[in-house]
From TrEMBL:
CDD domains assigned to the protein according to its UniProt record, in alphabetical order: ENDO3c
TM region(s), chain numbering: none
One record GO biological process: base-excision repair, AP site formation
GO molecular function, one term: DNA-7-methylguanine glycosylase activity
PANTHER family attached to this UniProt entry: DNA-3-METHYLADENINE GLYCOSYLASE (PTHR43003:SF5)
Keywords (A to Z) from UniProt: DNA damage, DNA repair, Glycosidase, Hydrolase
Catalytic activity: Hydrolysis of alkylated DNA, releasing 3-methyladenine, 3-methylguanine, 7-methylguanine and 7-methyladenine
SMART domains: ENDO3c
Superkingdom of origin: Bacteria
Enzyme class: hydrolase
Classification lineage: Bacteria, Pseudomonadati, Pseudomonadota, Alphaproteobacteria, Rhodobacterales
Gene3D superfamilies: 1.10.1670.40, Hypothetical protein, domain 2
Organism: Limimaricola soesokkakensis
Documented EC number(s): 3.2.2.21
Protein name: DNA-3-methyladenine glycosylase II
Amino acid sequence: MTERIITHEDHVAEGAAWLAANTDHFGRLLEITGPLPLRRTPDGFAQLCSAIVSQQVSTASARAIRGRLEAADLLRPETIAAADEETLRGCGLSRQKMRYLRALAASGIDFDALRTAPTEEVVSTLTAVTGIGVWTAEIYAMFALGRADVFAPGDLALQEGARHLLGLNERPRERALREIAQQWSPWRAVAARGLWEYYHHVKGREGIL
């Protein structure tokens, strides 16, 4: 695999410098945000559980649910598969997300193999699991696998951050933002970090865990 992997802060700084030198807006963004965060996470089943939990809830709610799952030892395939509905509901999971986590537990994904798989294969493997959409798969590739040139244009905070940064009249939809993000390749994951930080500055709230 030849894809660039972000492993430490120097890689993020390199990408940010490239964006500032090669785009019209990221120099101004970095003046506002300062250095961008690494935001690397462990990979594997537990991290993907966290991504599912984060779907359509606030960052604070997602953290709270993740904390309850961790305390109950429910971040492993075998414990999710064995847990009853009452236990999962007590952790804050909706019935829909219970189904998603059980589908993930039964999927048999080889998480070690994903580390060296092309991003397109990572996304297709993950989205084959019920409850995992493209957003979740791209977030996993970005943070858990450290892919430098992956973006998540379905993310509302990225859409809103791009609207403010680029001076757009309305928030770009997923397809439009995916096209816009092409100008930030090969550092689209760093551009995403910048837009999340910019969103936090503009809106005063976090856009991603």
